[in-house]
Write a structure and sequence with these properties.
Strand order of the largest sheet: 2-1-5-6-4-7-3
Radius of gyration: 17 Å
Number of domains: 1
Shape: globular
CATH topology: Alpha-Beta Plaits
Helix content: 25-40%
CATH class: Alpha Beta
Order of helices and strands: HEEHHEEHEEHHE
Number of strands: 7
Strand content: 35-45%
Number of helices: 6
Oligomer: single chain
Structural class: alpha+beta
């Protein structure tokens, strides 16, 4: 847990690391009050493959993870579409391209597995309503056909939360988003009740993974 603070200056000086967040995790498939203090994550946006490869081969942070972890899993993701902001910025914008598919229009069709990141800053006045809705969505995620893996992660306890999930294909994501009654009801309440002060939704194409997550590589 102490590395959540001590690793920040090192990451801030890492060449080619454009955007990053150190994340704790919950025990459920989605955002949860129940923290798992043994499982941690790094979400990182890189200038290119050489910068990432350099971090994995030379960074003391990556070396410590390899040395101390009982289990680890690493996935490389290509952004397909994004909407919203994280800390006031779009992590996937570039000077050349601007925002990546903010509305999803023109995003390449993805025939294979899809990764989804849903992240939000929850207004303090809406925390109780938000966490009352979590068990229903969590149960739906666990039962959803086509969901390969899912975990709730967060920057801050309670108020800055996210869900990272892996899906068989884009059709499975659409089925969960539009046909699941529990999910639709929660989305409707977040909009009408203005639960979030900031949110981000992003889709990715996974193109490389290594290691295991709960004993297996969900993309294998």
């Amino acid at each position: 847990m102490r590395y959540m603070a001590f690793d920040r200056p090192v990451l801030a000086r890492t060449p080619g690391l454009r955007f990053w967040r150190l994340l704790g995790s919950g025990r459920g498939a989605s955002m949860s009050l129940d923290a798992d203090l043994r499982r941690w994550a790094l979400f990182a946006v890189w200038d290119g493959e050489p910068a990432l490869d350099g971090f994995l081969s030379r960074s003391p942070i990556a070396a410590r993870w390899n040395r101390e972890a009982q289990e680890s899993w690493h996935v490389r993701l290509a952004p397909l579409a994004s909407r919203g902001r994280w800390g006031g910025v779009d992590p996937f914008a570039t000077e050349e391209a601007g925002d990546i598919a903010q509305t999803g229009a023109g995003a390449p069709r993805q025939a294979g597995p899809v990764a989804v990141l849903t992240r939000a800053s929850i207004r303090p006045s809406r925390l109780v309503a938000f966490y009352r809705s979590v068990p229903e969505v969590d149960a739906l995620l666990r039962e959803q056909e086509g969901c390969l893996a899912s975990v709730g992660v967060g920057e801050w306890p309670l108020a800055r939360q996210a869900t990272f999930s892996l899906w068989r294909d884009a059709a499975a994501v659409r089925d969960f988003a539009h046909r699941g009654g529990a999910h639709r009801r929660v989305i409707g309440r977040t909009r009408s009740g203005r639960w979030y002060s900031e949110e981000l939704f992003a889709r990715f194409a996974p193109y490389g993974s290594a290691g295991t997550w709960n004993g297996t590589d969900p993309l294998a």
